[in-house]
């Protein structure tokens, strides 16, 4: 499974055991300084940064775009590390992984390519349908990043020069099982999840893999189908197929406990060893189920390809979870009612329509403030902001502009419309449009906003292209 490569120069009822400290920490570890170390900014994937950006509603329209040509399409997001040593000099550096697994370091100030890591078997899948849509994650020591490739491997790469320290497989059938979601880091572990490809062609299963960051050793595997088998198995060895873990936020981490939250797609559910179409809370080692939920009509949803696994759980505070899906609904769940390994079917506190009543394929942005929690969700044809209070969801504002996963940084809300709509910038509290920055089309790409810059990849993995564009807007 592992190949070692040589080094070269929301808001009322708490969880039963949830403390005030845990609740305040629930929304994730904040990256040091201006860094943006992972998809969604923090462990809980809130997609909200309170770090100063230098960008405001008065100067954003004056920003100038640079288009950087890449050796591949980045159908995901970038990450950013400030003032790190690369190639013997200090750089503010961006890191991206292309759909065919090249991971590229870019000088954030100039757009120059600093290094490129190319997986050994790159030529065997370049231009094919075998891809990854994963976003890399940085180690807290800022010396290494971790990235996925289409052959089902996770690589540990040196920030200094891009060499691979180790490479470990998290699937034995990468032609069927795909790493679509971003990687997570927690307490010396990398958390990776798998799903299937478009068309749901069997056999495949969603599973959670835990890797040791030092050695690359695969420590634990939790399978959403055949969960009694703690191993990476050939998908055909399980009698059921499906139950992909593929939401844009992937594994969501409670930074106080390390508990892992995932949502699964179409698949069998029996509340014992088959956990399709469910929200699941696992312990930090992915060895035990600590909580679970499935809709009461999960069989109906599976038959209609309307599962809830198209989004990842959004932790909104004090034990509450917001969960979207392909049935055009946003559900508010109580973590307390999900507790335990015994099956929990139904029992959601509330269900409201998605922004335009469409399927949701995006990650929510979750903003905490002294007055409560706000949740921002997009689908193809609309954006909605809600507040969560007293165990209920209340509408805040809504528009008819669709987009990918929202991001809030420096007090502004950024939403990329991949269908020619550009990058729209709003006031989060009112939904007032401040400006739209022009850019090209895309798919699942979403921006990061750091240190006087906005960074957004363009393009879609569906084009099977080996070139792509990274947009960098800077203040003049």
Map the helices and strands.
Layout (H helix, E strand, L loop, with lengths): L1 E2 L16 H6 L22 E2 L14 E7 L8 E8 L2 E9 L5 E5 L5 E5 L4 H4 L11 E2 L5 E5 L4 E6 L5 E6 L14 E3 L2 E5 L13 E6 L5 E6 L28 E2 L6 E4 L15 E4 L6 E5 L4 H6 L10 E4 L2 E4 L5 E6 H4 L11 E4 L11 E5 L2 E8 L2 E8 L2 E8 L7 E3 L2 E6 L4 E5 L6 E5 L10 E3 L2 E6 L9 E7 L2
Parallel strand pairs: 2-28
Antiparallel strand pairs: 1-11, 3-34, 4-5, 5-6, 6-7, 8-9, 9-10, 10-11, 12-13, 13-14, 14-15, 16-17, 17-18, 18-19, 20-21, 21-22, 22-23, 24-25, 25-26, 26-27, 28-29, 29-30, 30-31, 32-33, 33-34
How would you characterize the overall build of this protein?
This protein is globular. The strands form 8 sheets. The protein has a 5-stranded antiparallel beta sheet with strand order 1-11-10-9-8, with no helix packed on it. Strands 2-28-29-30-31 form a 5-stranded mixed beta sheet, with no helix packed on it. Strands 3-34-33-32 form a 4-stranded antiparallel beta sheet, with no helix packed on it. The longest helix has 6 residues, at 20-25. It has 4 helices and 34 strands. Mean pLDDT is 92; it is low at 1-32. It is 4% helix and 37% strand. It has one domain (2-474): 8 Propeller (Methanol Dehydrogenase, Chain A).
């Amino acid at each position: 499974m592992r190949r070692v490569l040589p080094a070269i120069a929301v808001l009322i009822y708490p969880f039963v055991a949830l403390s005030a400290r845990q609740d305040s920490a629930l929304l994730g570890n904040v990256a040091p300084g201006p860094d943006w170390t992972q998809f969604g900014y923090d462990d809980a994937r809130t997609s909200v940064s309170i770090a100063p950006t230098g960008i405001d509603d008065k100067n954003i329209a004056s920003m100038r775009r640079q288009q950087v040509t890449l050796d591949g399409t980045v159908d995901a997001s970038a990450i950013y590390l400030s003032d790190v040593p690369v190639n013997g000099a200090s750089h503010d550096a961006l890191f991206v992984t292309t759909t065919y697994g090249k991971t590229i370091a870019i000088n954030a100030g100039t757009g120059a390519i600093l290094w490129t890591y190319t997986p050994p078997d790159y030529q065997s899948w370049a231009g094919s349908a075998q891809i990854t849509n994963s976003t890399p994650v940085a180690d807290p020591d800022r010396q290494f990043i971790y990235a996925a490739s289409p052959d089902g491997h996770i690589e540990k790469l040196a920030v200094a020069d891009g060499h691979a320290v180790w490479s470990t497989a998290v699937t034995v059938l990468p032609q069927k099982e795909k790493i679509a979601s971003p990687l997570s880091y927690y307490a010396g572990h990398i958390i990776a999840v798998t799903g299937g490809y478009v068309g749901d062609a069997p056999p495949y299963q969603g599973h959670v893999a835990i890797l040791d960051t030092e050695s690359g050793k695969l420590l634990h595997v939790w399978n959403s189908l055949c969960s009694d088998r703690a191993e990476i198995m050939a998908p055909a060895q399980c009698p059921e197929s499906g139950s992909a873990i593929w939401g844009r936020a992937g594994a969501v981490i409670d930074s106080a406990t390390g508990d892992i939250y995932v949502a699964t797609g179409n698949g069998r559910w029996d509340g014992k060893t088959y956990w399709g179409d469910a929200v699941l809370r696992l312990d930090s080692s992915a060895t035990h189920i600590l909580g679970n939920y499935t809709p009461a009509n999960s069989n109906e949803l599976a038959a209609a390809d309307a599962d809830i696994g198209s989004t990842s759980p959004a932790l909104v505070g004090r034990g509450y979870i917001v969960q979207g899906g392909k049935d055009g609904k946003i559900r508010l769940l109580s973590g307390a009612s999900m507790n335990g390994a015994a099956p929990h079917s139904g029992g959601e506190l509330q269900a409201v329509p998605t922004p335009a009543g469409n399927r949701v394929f995006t990650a929510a942005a979750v903003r905490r403030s002294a007055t409560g929690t706000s949740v921002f969700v997009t689908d193809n044809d609309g954006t909605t902001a809600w507040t969560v209070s007293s165990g209920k969801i209340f509408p805040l504002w809504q528009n008819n502009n669709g987009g990918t996963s929202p991001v809030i940084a420096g007090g502004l809300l950024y939403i990329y419309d991949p269908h020619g709509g550009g990058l729209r910038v709003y006031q989060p509290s009112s939904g007032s449009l401040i400006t739209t920055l022009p850019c090209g089309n895309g798919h699942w790409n979403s921006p990061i906003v750091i240190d006087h810059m906005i960074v957004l990849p363009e393009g879609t993995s569906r084009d099977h292209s080996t070139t792509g564009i990274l947009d960098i807007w800077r203040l003049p």
